[in-house]
Amino acid sequence: DLLMMYAPTNDLSEAEAKAVTDYMTTGGKVMVIWGDKGKGELPNLENILKTYGLEIADGYIADMQRNYQGNYWYIFPELSLDESLSDGISSQMVLTVNSRGMEQVDPARDTITVTPFMTTSSDGYAVTEETEKQGTFLLGATATETQDDTESRLTVIAGTSLIDAQITDSFPTLENTKLFMN
To answer: What is the pTM of this model?
Structure first.
């Protein structure tokens, strides 16, 4: 029912990438929770994401507006939740720490729709050792494709901290686990 990739550290082989792509074209559901691996090291997986309109940003994401006690790497994302994602969520408060981010790009086909559900403010930054790029970065998004009455879905969360026990146990009033489960 669901193919889940949690913090992948090795790239998909070409055969595995084709199997994932084939699965997606037949109504498959894929969830990727991006880990610490740097951009460019997982080209086959990144190509699948790009096909569905999502590109991993260089560096880690900081937010000058929506942060926890002045720590720009501890982000309270802006949430845009549809009915299925908002079930049981009342405070609209989740926390991500040291997350990667994504940028929305043109998907490979017109049948693909990208819907961000977690973003930084417009005062977000993608930070590397050499650069800082300002903008709004996606921290969670879903790409759906409907073809011949078949819907496939790719959900990408830009960091493992959303469901990290250190965060969910330290801040039990946050709704990280509810959002993840939805």
So the answer is: 0.93
11: exposed, middle or buried (C-beta count within 10 Å: 0-12, 13-18, 19+)? middle
Residue 57 scores a pLDDT above 80: yes
Contact between residue 96 and residue 139 where contact means Cβ atoms under 8 Å apart: yes
Of 123, 126, 139, nearest to 61 by C-alpha is 126
**Phi, psi angle pair for 71, to nearest 5°:** -95, 105
Q: Which of 63, 122, 66 is nearest to 93 (CA)?
A: 66
Q: DSSP letter string over 39-98?
A: TTS-HHHHHHHHHTTEEEPSSEEEESSSEETTEEEEE--EE---HHHHTT--S----EES
pLDDT at 87: 86
- Cα separation of 111 and 25, whole Å? 11
Residues whose CB falls within 8 Å of the CB of residue 115, separated by 6 or more in sequence, listed in order:
80, 82, 141, 142, 143, 144
Per the prediction, the chain carries an average pLDDT of 93
From the number of C-beta atoms within 10 Å of its C-beta (0-12, 13-18, 19+), residue 171 rates as: middle
Q: pLDDT tens, 127-146? A: 999 999 999 999 999 999 99
